[in-house]
Amino acid sequence: MDKKIVIPGDLLSENARNAGYGTYVKNNKVYSSLCGIENSKEDKVGVIPLAGTYMPAPNDVVIGIVVTVTPSNWFMDIAAPYDGMFHVSEYPRRVESADMPSILNIGDAAILRVKDVDDSMKVELALRDSSLQKLRTGQIVEVEPVKVPRVIGHGGSMISMLKKETNCNIFVGQNGRIWIDGKDEDMELLKKAFQLIQVESQRSGLTDRVYGFLKNEIEMQKQPKPAAYFNSKKKIVPDTKEEPSEENHSEETYRKIDVLLDPEA
């Protein structure tokens, strides 16, 4: 059964304690504040928006791309309306200003944590965690930020299955950017799976659907390819045996005639 689509004002719960993301409370009841999919987990009910831009929040883990390097900050594109500011003091070790481009230069990508977001939407980033790092290999793909929960799956079910079936390393940023690393053919298969997730994100049983898709694609890849056609016709080799020339033929004829006419022969 497809999940329930709700609009702003729809009643979600009679208990204010159940209020989750995308909701508001009125008269101790929980209502939807967004147009999206009702999402109930344990004692919380929320709404996954059908569309929208990533809005950074403290403790979000995101993938950022360096757009500017100043003497004390890296400014990062975090796929949001506002760039993130990564101060040099938030790097795990001391870095001199002159060395900053050698650590992270324009175009480089990294996994960072949102340290703080103030009222003016100034976004501060940090890298002080063993799980946060510069990305040196692999590829970055993007999905709609609102589809990130579906890419991860309930209890991490989807992402675990994707890692196992494609043999790829995967990290999903909450801003909709996903880092993948593996063999080229495996990463291409994984990108197809992400596309399917986005298209069918509103349907139930999505993990099983994507699993079936991957199994089918892998089986197709294992099938032997048709052999190339080779022309088996034998080449015609011209007969190089020398034909007797007209001159040689005449001399032979005359010799035989002479023998017949010579009585002493």
Q: How do the helices and strands line up, and which of them pair or pack?
A:
Blueprint: E1 5-6, E2 11-13, E3 23-26, E4 29-32, E5 36-41, E6 44-49, E7 61-69, E8 73-77, E9 84-87, H1 100-103, E10 109-117, E11 123-126, E12 134-135, E13 139-142, H2 148-152, H3 157-166, E14 169-172, E15 177-181, H4 184-199, H5 206-222, H6 246-261
Parallel strand pairs: 9-11
Antiparallel strand pairs: 1-5, 2-4, 3-4, 5-6, 7-8, 7-10, 8-9, 10-11, 10-12, 13-15, 14-15
Helix pairs in contact: 3-5, 4-5
Sheet with most strands: 5 strands, mixed, barrel
Report the structural category.
Answer: alpha+beta
Q: Please state roughly what percent of the residues sit in beta strands, choosing from under 5%, 5-15%, 15-25%, 25-35%, 35-45% or over 45%.
A: 25-35%
CATH topology of the largest domain: Ribosomal Protein S8, Chain: A, domain 1
Order of helices and strands: EEEEEEEEEHEEEEHHEEHHH
* CATH homology-level superfamily of the largest domain: K Homology domain, type 1
Could you name the ranges where pLDDT drops below 50 across 5 or more consecutive residues?
Answer: none
Give the C-level CATH assignment of the largest domain.
Alpha Beta
Number of strands: 15
Oligomer: single chain
Tell me the overall shape: flat
The second-level CATH architecture of the largest domain is: 2-Layer Sandwich
> How many domains make up the 3D coordinates?
3
Radius of gyration (CA) equals 36 Å
Q: How would you state the average pLDDT, rounded? A: 85
- H/I helix tally: 6
